[in-house]
Amino acid sequence: MNKILTVLVASFTAISASAQEKTWSLSDCIAYARENNISVQQAKLTAESSKVDIKQSKAALFPTLTFSTTQQLGFQKIESQDLATNVTGAKNPTYTGSYGINANVTLFDGGANWRTIKSNKLSHEADELNAEKTANSIELRIIQAYYQILYAHEAVTTNEEIVKVAEKELTRTQELLKVGKGSKVDVAQMESQYQQNQYTLVNARNTEAANILALKQLLQLGTEEDFSIDYVNYGTQDVMGLIPTVEDAQAQALANLPDVKAAEADVQVAELNEKIAAGGYYPTLSLGANITTSNGNTYSGDFSQQVKDHLRETIALTLSVPIWDGYKTRGSVSKARINTANAELALADTRLELNNTIADLHLDIQSAQARYQSAVTSEAAAKESFELMEGRYNVGLESIIDLLTEKNKYLQARQETLQSKYTALLNLRLMDFYTGNQ
Question: How high is the pLDDT of residue 300?
């Protein structure tokens, strides 16, 4: 029995550990947000709503059929013929019921119905594209947040190494003091440097934790959810990745992203709405038919006989010609034209903004890659200089001030390498997103 319990406990522990060790890659975060983000879901519901508009506009082409009935109860005054009763007048209750079935269909309305169907289809297409735009916006924020975490994590690793070096230097300085080869001032300066490095490490860890929390909130995960990142190690080959020319990247972005397509659909919708508004200038032709009947206590015969006797069938063709509608149609057409002009400007602005974004991104990548190459060379030289200075300090040939000066130069070079590295990596990833090369 004990063995069984031991096996069960071990299995449960392994399962729990496995669940807790689940890490989130960038693709995991993006897929989760696209499926579960509230803003994305709302945008999808908007697209579903516009889909219903298409069905309604199609249904408007078919005849309408209604049934109506009216039940009336009244009182009719009658004169009494019996003088002995002293009643000069009385009211006799009357009842009347009417029934009707009505059908109506629009034969011509200036093409408004057909254009409305087409407009609603385009609006639905635009809503779907806007839903994709919303998802893309969330994805961009996730990419930025994810690379900020990677940058912060590597900064933590770097600062941990720096603290170890500072601790070793402090220990070495204390040992030199014990054998009479150092001074308390040297120890104090090294202690100060060590504490400063510790403080920087704490800040780096806090920054990483804050960035992880920001990504978790962006994913709209609960505070009780376990969340850990799949840290990826990138090398020089990744940082120096090839990029397309500005012109090629702009062309790919315009073809790939839904932004321009949605703006183009908005222009087409505006143009159709302009034509729909102009339909008010045309006459409308409709066909109607109805069947009516009635019954009541003032009629002779039973219910079925009364309904049969009063049955009436009619059919009507109605032509309505607009003559003057108080500037309603002309005003609607003018507003529709303004909306079309606005949609065209929005399309031009979308294209311009996207092209500018790609151009800026392209320049940022080139700049970051150039800085990275320079920073790597500078870091290597600073590291060599620091190690040489450290060796000379350890044998008493250099002062602690010189050592700390070289160390700070080395740390600054490492920081520049780290910053340019993740600036390039982030912008490369964004370029892949815009051009569809993910």
Answer: 79
